[in-house]
Amino acid sequence: MSAKRENLVFVRAGKSSLHRQWFDADEYRNWDLQISTWEDDPSIAEGSDLPLSVDKGTKWDSIYRYLAANPQVMDDYRYIAFMDDDVLFEKGALNRYFDICKEEGLRVAQPSLHHDSYFCYSILLHCPHTKLRYSNFVECMAAAIHTDYLRSFMPRMAKVQSGWGMDRIWTVTMPDPCYKSAIIDEIVMLHTRPHATGVVYKAFADGGVTPKTEMDALINSYSDIPRKMLIYGAKGVHGDKLNASSAQLVNGRHLLANAWRYREPRRAAKTGAGMLLRAVTEAQYLPVAAHRLKTETL
C-alpha cells in the first residue's frame, strides 16, 4: 500500500475505463486507488495502490463482497468513493471532492454533472450559483460515503445487485439525515455513457435481475422514503447559506434558462419548473430518518 492517505477511490473498471485520466502519476493525492474488475486482464491493475480485486459480479454486489472480505479498509479510510468507469474529472478534482466532504461533515455526497453529460435526473446537473446543494437523493454513479456510516449501511447492501434504490434510501437511513447528504457543485464530472447501457446491464438481464423491481422492493422495505427528489438547502459559492426555498429558486431558474444546453432539454426544463413550484409548496421540507419495516423484502 502507498503512504497513508485519508480516502479511497474504488472504481469498478473494464478495459475501456476512464479512471486513468483522473490524475497524473506524480501529482499529489489525498486518496488511494482500488481497482476492481470483472475482466481476466492483469494490466487493468496499472496505477492501483491496492491489490487488484477480481470479481465476476456486478458493481454493488462486488463492492459488498470486497468490503466483507476486507473490513479493515473502513478503518483505514475516512471516505470511500465508489466510482463508475465512464465518468471524467479534471485533474485534482477528486482531492477537492474529499476535502469538501470532510469540511462540510457530509455522510453521503456526489459531484454534480457537467451540462454535456448523459443523465437521468436533472436535479444532479451542475448549478454554478452554489458550492453544494443539500439533497435527499445522491446517485450511485460516484458516491462518496463516510466509512462510519458505511459500516452501518453495509447490511442493506447484502442482497443488492443492481444498486438501484440505494440512492433513494442512503440519504435518509441515518439517525439525523438533515444536511448530511449533498450534490457538490464545486466539483463537476462528465458522464460519458447513456443510462442503462454497458456490460453491467447485460449481466443483469442474463442473471434475471430487473433493476426497477429491485429498487421498488428496497424502497418499500422502509418507512418514510421520500417519493420526490428534493433540494432542501444549499451553500453559495462564497459559503452563504440558502434555505430550501432560495435553493430551489436558484436551481430552478438555472435549469430553465439553460435547458437548451442539455442532452434532454425537456426533462431539464420540467425539473426546473417543478423546483420553482416547490420553492413555495415544499419550502419547509427537511428529510426525516426512515425506518426498516418488519415486512421487509430485501
UniProtKB/TrEMBL annotation:
Matching InterPro entries: DUF707 (IPR007877), Nucleotide-diphossugar_trans (IPR029044)
Protein name: DUF707 domain-containing protein
SUPFAM superfamilies membership: Nucleotide-diphospho-sugar transferases (SSF53448)
Record-linked Pfam families: DUF707
